[in-house]
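Internal tracking record. Fields below are filled automatically when a chain is submitted to the structure queue. Please do not edit lines marked as system-generated. If the sequence contains nonstandard residues, flag them in the REMARKS field before resubmitting.
Queue: standard
Priority: normal
Entity type: single polypeptide chain
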Amino acid sequence: MLRPLFATDAPGPVLSSRNLLLRLPENKDYRQWSALRERSREFLKPWEPSWPRDSLTRRAYRARVRQSAIDVREDTAYSFLIFRRRDEVLLGGVTVGHIRRGAAQSASIGYWIGVDHVRQGYMSETLSSVLKFCFDALRLNRVEAACLPHNTASRGLLEKVGFVEEGLAREYFRIDGIWQDHVLYAFLERDRRFKTVLEAATQ
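SYSTEM-GENERATED OUTPUT FOLLOWS
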């Protein structure tokens, strides 16, 4: 967790990488967030749960901000907004959720990116930062992700970062109003160690 390049009052961790800064949502982000979500509605709709009618209202957003702070205090979820460092433009979001402690030490991640910013490498950089946070800061052993079988872009992204496909979960999430099967992926802490050794050996 590194110091941000621009001022933030957001509680909780701030993640910084070469091109991006990830932090918890703040009330001041509402206009950027709602505008990006609205522009991206048709792009995101096939991959997300149905949006409530009030999902883009300021009231709903403030409730989201409050819940995000509660989740961090209780160590149950970390919902980051993704900003481009050079101009503070909001690109999307990523959530580390369903955190299980004790014998499990695992979590699930979900992510979205605005239609204006797809296929520019931002999400692979985001997931790399988030995995480092999960293993180094949260001390997790396992990070899971799920995507629709026909979402080739998301599947390619997960595999590029290093996630391993584990199988198919029937009717795993209700997406766009329909219960749909999902392909399950996971990244283990030992996978990161193996990947580091492999990369060093090939350099």
